[in-house]
Design a protein that fits this description.
The structure holds two protein chains of two kinds.
Chain A (H helix, E strand, L loop, with lengths): L1 E7 L5 H9 L3 E5 L6 E9 L2 E7 L11 H13 L3 E7 L3 H13 L5 E5 L1 H6 L2 E3 L1 H8 L3 E3 L8 H11 L12 H16 L6 H8 L1 H19 E3 L6 H9 L5 H38 L5 H18 L2 H17 L5 H11 L7 H7 L3 H6 L7 H10 L9 H10 L5 H26 L9 E4 L7 H33 L8 H10 L8 H10 L5 H10 L7 H13 L4 H40 L3
Parallel strand pairs in A: 1-4, 1-5, 5-6, 6-8
Antiparallel strand pairs in A: 2-3, 3-4, 7-9
Helix pairs in contact in A: 3-9, 5-9, 7-8, 8-9, 11-12, 11-13, 12-20, 13-20, 17-25, 20-25, 21-22, 22-23, 24-25
Chain B lengths: L1 E2 L5 E8 L3 H9 L7 E6 L5 E5 L2 E5 L1 H4 L2 E5 L1
Antiparallel strand pairs in B: 1-6, 2-3, 2-6, 3-4, 4-5
The chains are: A alpha/beta, B alpha+beta.
């Protein structure tokens, strides 16, 4: 089997090419020790199998960043049989920088010019033969979107992965002399490998300029701009990036949630039905501890959590469409000013918006934030954003206790989480993460028509990876809750526990209300069904205790799925911190509301 | 000469002040000393420049650390 690596700048269509090449056998994981996504896949061509490794999208190999570290380590240690460098034909001037760095690393990549169709549309004419000669590299023009040139590419990969090609590329004589001198110095110091790359790193200030000079020469020789094509992108940006551009966000985000929930609703019901039937079926075999554990604990518990999988799936699809089309990368720009005022970087707007749908993809999306502190803060506060799973609790309580205040409470519900998130950010900035949020340096890519086929495949692999990661914690959580309520709620550990815990709450909740909170840890929707079962219709709430209970459920504890995501994104320490803080905050605010209401005579 | 946060139209980058991290990120996107860029938007919030056919948004605080001259 031959190993090939895909490398390229962000937004060049590298991942799309990856999915086009690899079809079914794909594995998404993380690079060892870091939360940088690693994609691997396999395809067969002629008599050979090819393992494709998709490296993180990066502009250069030299900046300090996890992506760069991962890429350099991989390229120098694993030494793939062929490095395929994907470039965007419409912005060759930017993309060639990485190519020159690869050459300095002693790697002779196969260049893939993607989006040649779009370049043609824009009147950009690239002399490919000339470009080949200038760089001494093989080049294949393709269009992933239109399926052009892929067979030729596979043939080239097949051929080049069997031969070693020496790098034959030089800067100006003056610079080469300096590099050679540095290489000698490094040799004397005992360095043996990647000498040229190390030398260029030491001569960084000179080399960066030399590389860009060289690129400008090459582009001037090989690229001709004919007529200026009509550019819809400019028109879109005129509207979207204008002073009131954020107004466009409202319908876009509304459509995103509408699509997600309307499409997934029937599937959610379907999954619940399957798990309920399965549980009933298992129970038909008798009744002992193990059977009940399996039916009520494992199957029902897991089923409840899994029933939100369709939501997650369609959310991923909606997000990928917005991401690929180019709208999403512009949101941090639009909201940067507001976000910075509340102590967050512009990039944090995306995870927070997504969190309104579901905290799990919200926390995952914190990966777009480069600065580690900024990222940890955003992940910690994301669970305070009321996800849709908390909506049923809200609807339930309104129907029972607060019919006349519906409109007011709706606004209250949606803003409370956000206000708490903002307040917490400001406090964390004062106490722990003292430096101000990073300012944005952000590429605004061209708008694109997204490729639905690729998005669907990408989503499928992502959902699978999530299931794989979250399944253990969901399973353990479900079993734990079952054991806590065994053999029936009235005679269980949770009754006992609920009685003790209810002493800690001044809000006057009895053990049934407290036990339901334990259920809610698995998934917040469970609180409603638990309350219904335990109280059997006669609820023991006053206006004040009900409202404070509602507030508590909205704020306390990220559900287990979110907790497991937090753990994998920012580590146990911060995940537990987020959990602890959320319970504390929920307790405090709920108590205050209760006391104020009671004092007011409710 | 002026800083980038006050510029509009075609300008040449003279000098980038500021920390290593910021300089590197700017270099990655092709914003280096000597290059000519076009400031396409500079009204509220971050500034947008066009560099090598590519649009980049830069926070105002960072733009204050980039010295440019009309090109």
């Amino acid at each position: 089997m031959k190993e090939i690596a895909l490398i390229g700048n962000p937004n060049v269509g590298k991942s799309s090419l990856f999915y086009k090449l690899t079809k079914e056998e794909v594995h998404i994981g993380n690079w060892p020790g870091v939360t940088v996504e690693k994609k691997e896949g396999v395809y067969k061509y002629k008599d050979e199998k090819f393992k494709v490794v998709d490296l993180p999208g990066l502009y250069s190999l030299s900046s300090e960043g996890l992506d760069q570290k991962v890429a350099i380590e991989y390229l120098t240690k694993n030494k793939p049989d062929l490095v395929v460098n994907v470039l965007d034909a419409t912005i060759l001037g930017r993309d060639l920088y990485l190519t020159l760095e690869l050459l300095d690393l002693g790697i002779s990549p196969l260049l893939v010019l993607n989006k040649v169709d779009k370049a043609k549309e824009l009147g950009i004419d690239i002399d490919i033969e000339r470009l080949k000669r200038e760089l001494n590299l093989e080049i294949v023009p393709i269009s992933v979107l239109k399926n052009e040139g892929l067979d030729k590419l596979k043939e080239k990969i097949y051929k080049l992965s069997r031969e070693k090609k020496e790098v034959n590329f030089k800067y100006s004589k003056e610079v080469e002399d300096k590099i050679n001198k540095k290489i000698e110095e490094l040799k004397n110091k005992g360095f043996k490998e990647n000498l040229r790359f190390l030398a260029t790193k030491e001569l960084e200030d000179i080399i960066i300029k030399e590389r860009y000079k060289k690129i400008e020469e090459i582009v001037n020789k090989c690229v001709k701009y004919k007529k200026k094509g009509r550019d819809i992108c400019e028109l879109l940006d005129k509207v979207f990036l204008s002073k009131y551009g954020y107004l466009c966000l409202i319908p876009i985000i509304w459509l995103m949630f509408k699509f997600t929930f309307d499409t997934s609703a029937p599937l959610v019901d379907f999954i619940s039905l399957i798990f309920n039937s399965l549980s009933t079926y298992i129970k038909s075999f008798g009744s002992n501890f193990l059977i009940n554990l399996l039916a009520d604990g494992v199957v029902n518990g897991v089923g409840t959590v899994l029933s939100f999988l369709p939501i997650l799936t369609f959310m991923f699809i909606a997000l990928a469409i917005l991401e690929e089309s180019g709208f999403f990368p512009r949101i941090p720009y639009l909201l940067d000013r507001v976000m910075r005022k509340i102590g967050l970087p512009g990039e944090a707007s995306i995870p927070l918006i997504i969190s309104y749908g579901c905290n799990v993809p919200g926390v995952m999306a914190t990966r777009v934030i480069r600065d580690k502190d900024d990222r940890v803060i955003t992940a910690i506060i994301s669970p305070f954003i009321p996800c849709t799973a908390r909506l049923p609790i809200f609807a339930f309580f309104i129907a029972l206790f607060f019919k006349e205040y519906e409109g007011f409470l709706l606004i209250f519900f949606y803003s409370l989480g956000l206000i708490v998130a903002i307040a917490l950010t400001l406090i964390l900035r004062k106490l722990i993460f003292k430096k101000p949020p990073m300012e944005i340096i952000l590429e605004l890519p061209h708008y694109n028509v997204p490729n639905i086929n690729l998005i669907l495949r990408n989503t499928w692999f992502r959902v699978r990876a999530f299931l794989y990661k979250a399944s253990t914690i969901i399973l353990l959580g479900s079993i734990l809750v079952y054991i806590l309520t065994y053999p029936n709620p009235e005679n269980s550990i949770s009754h006992y526990l609920g009685n003790i815990l209810s002493n800690f709450f001044i809000q006057g909740w009895d053990w049934r209300a407290v036990v339901s909170l334990i259920y809610g840890v698995i998934a917040k929707e469970l609180i409603v069904s638990s309350l219904e079962i335990l109280y059997k219709g006669s609820f023991n709430f006053t206006f004040a205790s009900a409202l404070s209970y509602l507030v508590f459920t909205l704020l306390y504890f990220p559900c287990v799925a979110t907790l497991s995501t937090l753990k994998s994104e920012i580590g146990w320490k911060w995940a537990l911190f987020s959990m602890f803080v959320s319970v504390l905050v929920a307790y405090l605010i709920s108590s205050i509301i209760f006391l104020v209401l009671k004092w007011g005579g409710f | 000469m002026e800083t980038l946060d006050r510029a509009l139209g075609k300008v040449r980058i003279i000098k980038i002040y500021g920390g290593e991290g910021i300089r590197r990120r700017l270099y990655d996107l092709g914003l280096i000393e000597g290059v000519t860029v076009e400031v396409v938007k500079n009204d509220f919030g971050p500034i947008i420049v066009k560099v090598r056919g590519n649009k980049v948004a830069i926070g105002r605080g960072i733009a204050k650390k980039i010295l440019v001259a009309k090109a």
